[in-house]
Amino acid sequence: MANVSIIIPVLNEASCLGRTLRYLRILEPACAEVLVVDGGSSDDTAAIARAGGATVIQSVQRGRAAQMNAGAEWASGDILCFLHGDTLLPDDAIAVIETTLANPQTACGGFISVMAGAQTTRWGITLHNSLKTHYAPLLFRPHLYCLKGLRLLFGDQVMFCRKTDFWACGGFETTLPIMEEADLCLKLCRRGRIRQVNRVVQSSDRRVVQWGPIKANFIYLAIGFLWGIGMPAAALKQFYADVR
Question: Is pTM, for the whole model, over 0.85?
């Protein structure tokens, strides 16, 4: 069994969590544990998590950053992997994570996220989100991109890092309601390179279904640009409502 703890922050994810956990049960090698950190769900999320073999943690503070920190505090593994409740991992994900972090010069990694739903795969948004990992830091932090290996990873890319590096940076910033993963990348790049591995995970397109492709692409682009030029994350959150 690999020494990787998978941490899933959730809030009312009953519609998709069961499928995500089924994919985790066929990981080879298996992870050390699956920690589902609940922010106060009013549906069957916690029951589904327990039935799926996960350990359920009730977070005192709601919010992805705080919930992921709570999971990291509980984690027994030396490697932390942060997974969204609507994202599916390949069965060899643990081996990919361990191989990536076997390089001591790598501090953090993430996958290429393919956005898909029951009827379609969002290839255009998938391509843009993958390229954003590179062009966003190149545009806004070019010195870190070129000299320190900064890449900006986002939640649906399934970020992973060593627990020692995570806490040495202070973990996720709990005051940030959005862009907490990108903020962590900025901190982790002081400890090593950030890598986007050449493997894919599948994330739900539910935001695109609700917003429509044009509006979704505009929101993704606008939030990244405004954050890059210094707009506070709290102000950006109003444009990125929760979708379940």
Answer: yes
